[in-house]
Specification:
D-Amino Acid Oxidase, Chain A, domain 2; 6-stranded mixed beta sheet; 373 residues; 29% strand; FAD/NAD(P)-binding domain
């Protein structure tokens, strides 16, 4: 069995290490930070598709914070669409720790405070952040799961052209509906995307925006609009933030028998929502399957999630050009009684099912396609 080095001990790297170690591979899991799950750079929201992963049925309970029962989409005009669909709000530190613990239980060796620097032949160079010195470790195969600015992708010449959104999120106290995840659309505070309120309970929520430039400026605008509509003001308790890549289908994600990229390092992110946890975890499963069958990892993950990620990217191109009036019109069409059941039946991990079913019911949605050209 080859020596496998997994770089990055987030949930995607942890899951990959767990699956590979369970197959009998000699796995080293390396994380540059000294603590798993820190710093937090994610909203921590999972769709119901999490239930489809190859995990024990009760695994969710170890990191679940809240389960929302519906999604509220709020147009710039204030019009609201309610979709009955469950979402899981998770503790990201515990979530990351769950997968890393599984990897260690399966035989992977965990190295904290070990930052990847370079590779030459079958030797990897790291900086040991605990001892402040350089160390070298052998590896026959490298898994790059080290985030959007992937040092692995850069070192192996796979970084390519990347586009990023910049997110700002606050953990805040106030009065919230714990049963509803809210997404607010409008170019005043979230051009091209949306702002969100994700409740942990009735007193605490994660509030954020993601934009291409000046995220704090847009966050302040959004927070003011929220507070203007409330009797009791929202209070910021903690700040979080990070960068999120936009999916690039042209990026190479594999060097045969030597290297693979996954998760944010491979831009395997839904371009409409910037969510990448589920797709990254599925990519980890694809890696384990491809090594077992001695098949191409890139072909395997693209067959599993590539079409969905491509459709999200096309929707992103439309979203980038929508005016507030167009957002209002789109929300009006999507809020019809004949469309709501489609939105409730299919979650956002499968955009094709939503798009094609909606177009059959409402051909006027085609009016937005011109933004693709």
């Amino acid at each position: 069995m080859p020596k496998i080095a997994v770089i990055g001990a987030g949930p995607v790297g942890g899951y990959a290490a767990s699956l590979l170690a369970a197959q009998g591979h000699e796995v080293s899991l390396c994380e540059e930070h000294k603590e798993i799950g820190k710093p937090i750079q994610c909203t921590g929201l999972l769709t119901g598709s999490f239930d489809e992963l190859r995990l024990p049925p009760k695994s969710l309970q170890s990191f679940l914070v809240n389960t929302t029962e519906r999604i509220e989409l709020i147009a710039p005009s204030g019009r609201k669409i309610e979709i009955k669909q469950k979402e899981y709000v998770i503790d990201r530190s515990k979530f990351d720790g769950y997968f890393v613990d599984k990897a260690v239980d399966n035989g992977a060796k965990l190295h904290l405070g070990r930052r990847f620097i370079s590779a030459e032949d079958n030797w990897l160079q790291f900086k040991d952040n605990n001892a402040g010195r350089r160390i070298y470790a052998p590896a026959d195969f490298v898994v790059g799961a080290d985030g959007p600015n992937s040092a692995v992708a850069q070192q192996f010449g796979l970084f390519g052209q990347r586009e990023f959104f910049f997110g700002v999120q606050a953990v805040a106290t106030g009065e919230f509906d714990p049963s509803a995840y809210q997404a607010y659309f409008g170019n005043r505070f979230a051009p091209g995307l949306f702002a969100w309120v994700v409740p942990e309970d009735n007193k605490t929520a994660r509030i954020g925006v993601a934009v291409r430039n000046n995220p704090r400026q847009y966050f302040d605008i959004f927070l003011k609009e929220l507070n203007d509509k409330r009797k009791s003001k929202i209070r910021i308790r903690a700040w979080q933030g990070g960068i999120i890549p936009v999916y690039n289908p042209k990026l190479p994600t594999e060097i045969k028998n030597k290297l693979v990229l996954m998760g944010d390092a491979a831009t395997q992110v839904k371009a409409t929502t910037l969510g990448g946890i589920i797709s990254g975890l599925k990519a980890a499963e694809c890696l384990a399957e491809s090594l077992k069958r001695r098949e191409s990892y890139a072909q395997t993950w693209k067959k599993e999630i590539g079409r969905d990620l491509w459709l999200h990217l096309q929707m992103r191109k439309v979203m980038d050009k929508l005016s507030d009036d167009e957002w209002n019109k789109l929300m009006q069409l999507m809020g019809q009684e004949k469309i709501i059941p489609i939105l409730e039946k299919h979650n956002r991990e499968k955009p094709g099912r939503i798009l094609f079913s909606s177009l059959l019911k409402e051909p006027r949605l085609l009016q937005f396609v011109h933004h693709l050209f």
